[in-house]
Amino acid sequence: MKLYDMGLAPNPRRVRIFLAEKGIEVEREEVDIPGGANLSDAYRAINPRCVVPTLVLDDGSIIDESIAICRYFEAMHPSPPLFGTTPIEQAMIESWQRQCEFDGLFAVAGVFRNRSPNFAGRSMPGAAPSLPQSAELAERGALLTAHFLERLEARLAASPFVGGEAYSVADITAMVVVDFAKWVRIRLPETHAATLSWYAGVSARPSAKA
Amino acid sequence: MKLYDMGLAPNPRRVRIFLAEKGIEVEREEVDIPGGANLSDAYRAINPRCVVPTLVLDDGSIIDESIAICRYFEAMHPSPPLFGTTPIEQAMIESWQRQCEFDGLFAVAGVFRNRSPNFAGRSMPGAAPSLPQSAELAERGALLTAHFLERLEARLAASPFVGGEAYSVADITAMVVVDFAKWVRIRLPETHAATLSWYAGVSARPSAKA
Asked: Where is the GST C-terminal domain (chains A, B) (predicted)?
């Protein structure tokens, strides 16, 4: 089993934090995305979709969606549970994980990929069509990120963790969103007391450094 | 338990198909999204996010992401499994379900919400910021939809179902994408033989009419 990884990028970081929380060690190989290594012929032969992270299993199967990789490890190593245990816990964590992705991670990515000079001509991930950067999309992304942070604050004012009573994969995504947002100079407002307190807690976990 | 539903929209349809495949009956109430009922005070009191579908449980909890609602029912009624059983099945179905959503459903929604006169001034779902429609986003959506359909064809040329050997939630999302794409006049190319054959099969299931 091998995990194709990239130290700085938010999606691979989600998987590394997940593995650290589970105490699972996996062989890793770094892929230089800014240098374009994910679009090389060598990497394309591993994963034609050219995205990172990609998990290659011993039978040659590849799993290349961060949350799908996490679900694989959750099924193989159920403890500690990071996708919930009861049906309602599972549903709430799934719901919040998705909201943190769609409304948070995708919004920040919209700003970053449409503004960063490194991504000129490839505002979409991996082998997706190479669309030009769009100032309009960057602006929308910034507006939606701010909206997401408001909703996150409301949620964390009412719940100790994003998915409910316990730390879960939803916290991993939300923390990664907060850190990724700094790349595009969007910071947690000082008035977001609940989020700031939660963020201090999740960032202090050893897994946050993974 | 009550499911807030909308007959025509693609996301509520995913949940209805899922329930039909499981043989589960749930009380439903129709929400008139084109008429703006999801943004009414009455609906806002049920779900401040103003999205449909929303499942309200007997204890008052709400679950308002289609796939989170499906996961709730999968946990409550595991048979027949629609999210896979073994770790690798679960991961592959999760991966493909996500790809069908991100690369397919979101792409078509990008065209529809940015072109349909009914969605002028509310190109984002529910209570998200009311962004103006964007011709650029509609055009990108059409391009990404075409790219997704190519990838779906490649997948179905190699696999009987989208998620693998058995019908799953990934097929539900993919079928809904194909039908939703017709709303924006994107049809399966005649050359996509594997997808056309798969589509005929999944559309003939009684659940497709749910």
From this structure: 86-210
Q: What is the CATH number of the domain that holds A33?
A: 3.40.30.10
Which residues span the domain enclosing B151? Answer: 87-209
Q: Report DSSP letters for B71-85, one per residue.
A: HHHHHH--SS-SS-S
Burial class (CB in 10 A: 0-12, 13-18, 19+), B95: buried
Task: Count CA atoms within 13 Å of residue B72 on its CB side.
Answer: 25
The answer to whether B115 touches B184, Cβ cutoff 8 Å, is yes
In the numeric block, the tokens 């994980």 are attached to A97
Q: Tokens 């049809």 appear where?
A: B187
Q: Which positions in chain A have a beta carbon within 8 angstroms of at least one beta carbon in chain B?
A: 57, 61, 63-65, 67-69, 71-72, 75-76, 86-88, 90-92, 94-95, 98-99, 103, 124, 128-129, 131, 134, 136-137, 140, 143-144, 147
Count Cα neighbours of B200 within 13 Å in the Cβ-side half-sphere: 5
* Chain B residues inside the 8 Å CB shell of A131: 140, 143
| Token pair recorded at residue B65 | 């992401």
C-alpha neighbours within 13 Å on the C-beta side of residue A144: 27
Interface TM-score (ipTM) > 0.85 = yes
Would you state the structure tokens that stand for residue B26, as one six-digit string?
A: 């749930």
B69 phi/psi in degrees, rounded to 5 = -65, -45
- Residue B98 included in any domain: yes
